[in-house]
Amino acid sequence: MNDKPRSTANTNNRRGTFQLLSAYIYGDKALLSKATIFLLLATAADVFGPYLGKVFIDDYLMPRNFDTQALVILLCLYLVTQVAAAWLRYKQTMHFTTMALNAVQDIRQRAFKHVLNLPMAYFDHARTGQLVSRITNDTEAIKDLYVQFLSVVMSNLILLVGILIAMALLDLQLMLASALLIPTVVGVIFLYEKFSGPAVQHSRHLRSEINANVSESIAGMSVVQATNQQQRFIGKFDSVNDDYYRARMRTIKVSALLLRPAIDLLSVLVLVAIIWMFGLQVTTGVAEVGVLYAFLNYLGRFTEPLAEVTQRFNLYQQAMVAGDRVHTLIEESEQQYHNTPAQVSEGRLSVSQLNFAYQVDKPVLHDISFSLQPGELYAVVGHTGSGKSTLLSLLLNFYQGNPGAIQLDNQPLESFSHDNLRRGIGLIPQEPFIVAGTLRDNIDMGRGLPESELLRAAQQAHLSDTLAQLPEGLDTLLGEGGTRLSTGQRQQLVIARALAASPRILLLDEATANVDSETEQVIQRALKELHGQVTMIIVAHRLSTIKHADQILVLSHGRIEERGTHKELMGEEKGLYRSMYQLQQQAKRVEMLS
Description:
This protein is of the alpha/beta class. The chain has 20 helices and ten strands. It has a six-stranded mixed β-sheet with strand order 6-7-8-3-9-10, with helices on both faces. α18 links the parallel β7 and β8. The longest helix has 49 residues, at 68-116. It is elongated and about 120 Å long. The two termini are 66 Å apart.
């Protein structure tokens, strides 16, 4: 029962892939028309060459008619056709290659743009290396469909038609004998596609696994070496690499058996048949040596296109599998936003009876309700797994809770457009993300903000002293991952980035968890200065940093167990917050004594 839906899905996906790839074939009709014209002219020049050879043998060589003027004209015609064929093939290849590169460029741009607009839920399960492989390797494989397959198949099919017409004009019986190659080659191609298809698809999947393993290993190199896990990662990589080797060997064996060797064998059999039939014609006195020469020449050109077509079916298989993978990625549903004029202008936030679950049977948040007035600062605390970060993700609309549960300035969160929502809410994550560029690039993030706004944001984040020490100020290159900055400075940079667009609501996800005490104090001072100007929600690990919060929400197993100010919560003798705070203070004293 499961096979039918899977088969239907595969059929629909393949149909979608054909639509995706064929759109680029017919997308630039002018370029396709030019390529086809060059192809037809090149084919005519190729076919005309052996016919001139036949004329030379039968009309001049055999009768020993050496008319100098006629032979010079014949030689010049032959040279012109060969030079013209070479030039026309060059122009044809250039046009098909241009078509291919245009297609790959656009498909790669579409895929990358689509990935950037996918919901965060997609990235909970996606692997970075596999996504990179789809956007780079798979789109590159699609290029072969246009350059190596479409161009070769079209040119060779037209060449075959031209050769068959020329053969028929010379000798219909010998042409029919040669044409027997075509249905046998179609059968070979059918068998090849049937046996090689699954192996090619499996090998593409394994190539993505290799990329994913390499990406994961490099990204976590410090952890791998610190925990002495090199051998385990090497073993895991070797296992996938061996599987990829075996999958590729299966495709190579099928290719080696069914492609060139099979065509060569068939062409030899046809050659034997033509020579035998020509021998019969010799006995009846109707054969011409020039016809045999032309047929043997045409047969060599006839079998070569067939061999080329079958050889390229290996690339066709890979391109179609790659196209399936890219098409599947592009068909993933994007994050949807409404296009309304609603804006976050005041910073009022209300959450009412919010419920959420990543999986239907495993709820994460239960009946969460609270509200902030503009400029208020709320802190959210709790043990690991209590739902703190999930709450921030819902406030950012990365995930969707029950409709209408979250409102910004008395407007449902779902009613805000993407741009207006991102302008109104700023995020300061726990792990700073620094792009490989200048300090200006990292604060501005492509928003085109004036320098005065960037400097204001740097001052609010207390990054001005660091900025003054850098040799080129805002234009200082930071290197990949911001290696020229300390951990604390990177965190201050992320705060400046969030403040540069003047958001009305600021969300901080344990922004001081990974910084030293001195930097923590600097960040705390910056946040206190913002208190009252910007609505803030701080997810905090160090409870000593949120004493000044207007309200503290204590989450436990996805529910608000306690709420109040630091003083009020510390007054609860058996309260969860008081217990957590005392444990942290005790651990801090032990650390100082040691």
